[in-house]
Every structure is written in structure tokens, then in C-alpha cells.
Amino acid sequence: MKVTISVLKADIGSIGGHIIPSQALLNEVKNFVRERGKDFIIDFYVSHTGDDIAILCTHERGTNDEKIHKLAWDAFLAGTEVAKSQGLYGAGQDLLKDAFSGNIKGMGPAVAEIEFEERPNEPFVFFAADKTDPGAYNLPFYLGFADPMYCAGLILSPKMSEGFTFRIIDVEYTEKDKIIDLNVPEDLYDIAALLRDNERYVIESIYSRSSGNQAVSISTTRLHNIAGKYTGKDDPIALVRVQGEFPATGEVLAPFQIGHLVAGFMRGSHTGPLMPCKLNTSISYFDGPPVVTGAAFCVNNGKLTEPADVFDHPYWDYVRNKISQKASDIRRQGFSGAAMLPYSELEYGGIVEKLEKLDKKFTYKN
């Protein structure tokens, strides 16, 4: 059976600042999708990561389908009304356009989709991050799909011996999608040269070279490129098919133990370690730290199993403790140097305006 998995995610309101959506807000989105989508979606799962709500659904309509995207858009609008009625913070924050125009991409919400012919068993992981940008996935998926130090399958599995194709997008080019396809292992250094710049070059998708089948889809929306000002961090999502011709689940998860430093944290203007957290985790310390959750499923004829929480294991408690220390260490540096993002990435308008005013006051020394 050919099935499509679509995930659409947005921040449309939160209790007490950027912490967690209300239960009434979550219920509204769930009920809306259940009622309005019953004739054309097969199954769905609604969750939150930090203050963002994600709608994951399966269907047979392919990617970029107007009906699926409008369902999510209308669900987020309905949820926004509940957020407004409760006085939640940031109601409708990620809905950056006034009217739906056929596709939710470029309107604020994050989107990741994969269409494929189901294997006899079809496992995948849905990753959702909050308080960071799409480049947060660059390092873990580079290591999980290209480095045998993390992905043993690259040297142990005949199905993976030909490697993978990385499709990388230049997110600063906004007129149209500007992409490049590079292969591992032969283009490994070129891929590394691009992916080191998390704010500009981002993995959009990954494909098996032996079969051409898609393994990964990542949302690549940059909100400040849509709104022209800071409205919130991009909070990316990713779908990753695992096992068989793709890396095993454990190989995809292994790089997340690094807690690598990413953009985000407070006001989207700082640097902090990405913390793998349990499903439906809230946001706390310094509006962070940047978090990622993982829900693993199997899908059969489009029907989903219950989610398995990939970061709910005692090992990840140990990792979270280490990352907490890492977050505290960099926060001790305050606004100085690498602890805060460079001028080009300071999305919060106040300091940009301040620096522009100060620049006019500079004089030239004789």
C-alpha cells in the first residue's frame, strides 16, 4: 500500500509564557482533526513538544496535498480561538498569513512529509524540536546516516553499503527552493562543509542510494524569512524511516547523546545544547534548553500503533543530566561571545534597533 505520513506543527498558544499548551487547546485540535478529517485521513496523532502542537496523520493523498494542509491550518485556527478565549500567551503566533492559499508551507507552521510504498513492517520515528531552528538536525542526521562510528550498518549491512543521498537546502535563499544533492561516502567532506553552517544550509531530505527510497524529511521553514522579524524560533520537525535499508532506530538516536550546541534558547537569540526529552515535555530553564522529542511508530495499511517514547529510558536520564550541566556552563557566559548568536542571527528586534542607533553615534578617530 502506498501511504503518506504528514506532520504539521505550530505554536498557537501557551500557558504562562513559552511553556506548554493548555489541555483545552490540545483537545480542540484533536477533536477538529478527528471530525473534519474522518473522510480522508486514515489515522492521526496529536502531541506537543514544549509549547508547539503537532498533527501527525496518515493518508493516501500524497505530499503537499491541499486538503491535508487546509485541515491542519483550520485546526490551528480553531485552536487559536481557544487560546485567545483562555488568554494564553502567543495565541496564533506561528500563523503568519491571513488566508490559506493551497499549501501550509511558507505560512508559518512546520511541515514534514514522506510518501512511500509500505514495507511488510514499516517503523519510523517522528522527531519534534522546540526553541531551535532546522539546522539542529544537521549533526545528528549526518552522523546517523554517514558516519560508521555512529551508524554501524554502513559497514555491517549490505542494504546500506551504497550509502545515502543528502538533499541540502539554502534556507537564506527565499525566492524559491535552492537545493543540492550530495552522496556519501564520496561527497562526505562537501556535505560537512555545508552542514557546519546550521543557520544557512539545512538537510531537507535523505534517500537510499540502493533503492532511491526516501528515508528522511525535515521541515526547513525559517520564520524570520516569512515575517521579516522575530516571531519565534522555527521549532523543526523530522520524519525518519528506520530499519532494513535504513539505519536502525538506535543508530539514528545515538548522536543525540552529544547534546550539541544549537541556536535558540531564550528569545531565539542564544546558543544552548539540544536536550533529548520525553514526549510532551514542557519548556522551562531560560525558555529552554532547546529540546527534541521522539515518537516511534509502526504503520500498517496507514494505521498507526501507539507511540513508543524513544527518549524514555534510564540512559537518557544520564544524558539529560550531562546536558543540563552543559546548559548551565554556557549560560554563565551570559550575553558574551558564543553564548549569544551573532548579529546576523539576532532575530529579536530590540537589540537590532539598539545597535543601529548606536552605530550612528560612532565617530572617527583622527
General description of the model:
With 366 residues, this protein is α+β, with helices and mostly antiparallel strands. Helices cover 27% and strands 26% of the residues. The chain starts with a strand and ends in a 5-residue tail after the last helix. The model is unreliable at 226-232 (pLDDT under 50).
Write out key terms for the chains shown.
366 residues, alpha+beta, ten-stranded mixed sheet, four-stranded antiparallel sheet, 27% helix
Radius of gyration in whole Å, from Cα?
20 Å
Number of helices: 9
State the helical fraction.
Answer: 25-40%
Count of all domains: 1
Q: Mean pLDDT across all residues, rounded?
A: 93
The run of helices and strands is EHEEHEEHHEEHEEHEHEEEEEEHH
Number of strands: 16
Q: What is the terminal separation in angstroms? A: 76 Å
Global morphology: globular
Category from helices, strands and their pairing: alpha+beta
Layout of secondary structure:
Layout: E1 2-10, H1 23-36, E2 43-49, E3 52-59, H2 66-86, E4 110-117, E5 123-130, H3 138-146, H4 153-156, E6 164-170, E7 179-183, H5 188-195, E8 201-208, E9 214-218, H6 223-227, E10 237-241, H7 249-253, E11 261-264, E12 270-273, E13 275-276, E14 291-300, E15 303-304, E16 308-309, H8 314-331, H9 349-361
Parallel strand pairs: 13-14
Antiparallel strand pairs: 1-3, 1-4, 2-3, 5-10, 5-14, 6-7, 6-8, 8-9, 9-10, 11-12, 14-15, 14-16
